Amino acid sequence: WDQIQTNRFRMSLIMFPSHRAPFMAGTLEFPFVDHRMREMEKAVFGEAPSLRLSSWTPRCNVSETPTHIIVKAELPGVPKENVAIDLKDTMLTITGKHSEEKVQDGEQLHHVERSYGTFSRAFCLPAGVSPDNVEANFKNGVLEVRVAKPSPETPKSARIPLN
């Protein structure tokens, strides 16, 4: 019995890359799984955007220089007017809407891969960032938000007299 239990546990282990969580495996390592999940979602919930399990999520990069934190988001086809950037405390939030294109009279869609809908991405920044020190540029479908790093506070020291 001990040998059967041991083999059962050995066979149940699944190795995932250490830098990715198991629930995220569908995106890069197993694109077929991601595609099948989308098909099942469509079969169960239909095409109604309000019933979808997930909405469109733009790809983002976060980088750092000695003076700034830089967030770049790919927003192809999203007009500048449909994008909002908010900074509350240490949370930088990018929200917007990618509107679906109108189908021309007489045109029939046969295959659709492009995603539409609202999106929201949030990034936690270091304490002390100020909304006054944020710049945003939108060019060629790429949003770049540059947040100045807070200046490091010098620790205050004082000699405490003994009574």
Notes on the protein architecture:
- There is one protein chain.
- With 163 residues, this protein is an alpha+beta fold.
- Helices cover 15% and strands 29% of the residues.
- The chain contains 2 helices and 7 strands.
- Strands 1-2-7-6 form a 4-stranded antiparallel beta sheet, with no helix packed on it.
- β6 (134-139) and β7 form a beta hairpin.
- The chain is elongated.
- Mean pLDDT is 75; it is low at 4-28 and 48-54.
Q: What number is the mean pLDDT?
A: 75
The count of strands amounts to 7
Can you give the helix content as a percent range?
10-25%
Rg, alpha carbons: 24 Å
The unreliable regions are 4-28, 48-54
Distance between the termini: 73 Å
- Please write the string of helix (H) and strand (E) elements: HHEEEEEEE
- How is the biggest beta sheet arranged? 4 strands, antiparallel
Number of helices: 2
Q: How does the helix and strand content classify structurally?
A: alpha+beta
Roughly what fraction of the amino acids lie in strands? 25-35%
Principal-axes shape call: elongated
Strand order of the largest sheet: 1-2-7-6
